[in-house]
Amino acid sequence: MRKKTKLLGLLFLLTAFLSLPSNTVCAAKLSNMSGKQIISTLKTNGFPIHSYNIYSTNKSDPNHLLGKPHQYKCKIDFQDRTYMDDDIECSGTVEIFKNSSDATRRRKYLKTIYDAVPSWSMRMYQYSNVLLRIDYSVASKRAKYYKNAFSDMSKGKTPRFPITINKKSKTIYPGKTYTLKLNISSKKAKWSSSNKKVATVSKAGKVTAKKKGTAVISAKFNGYTVKCKVTVKNPPVKINKEYLTLKMGESYTLKLLNTSKRATWISDNERVATVSANGKVTAKASGSTEITAFLGSYCYSCEVIVPQEGIAMPGITVSTINWEAVSSEVTFRIQNNTAHAIEIYKTAYAYDDDYELLKAMEMPYYYNKTILPGQQDDVNFVAYSSNNVIYNTQRITFFFDMDGVKYRCEAEYNYEYGQPYKFSYYREV
Question: Which option is the CATH number for 169-232: 1.10.340.30, 2.60.40.1730, 2.60.40.1080, 2.60.120.10?
Answer without folding.
Answer: 2.60.40.1080
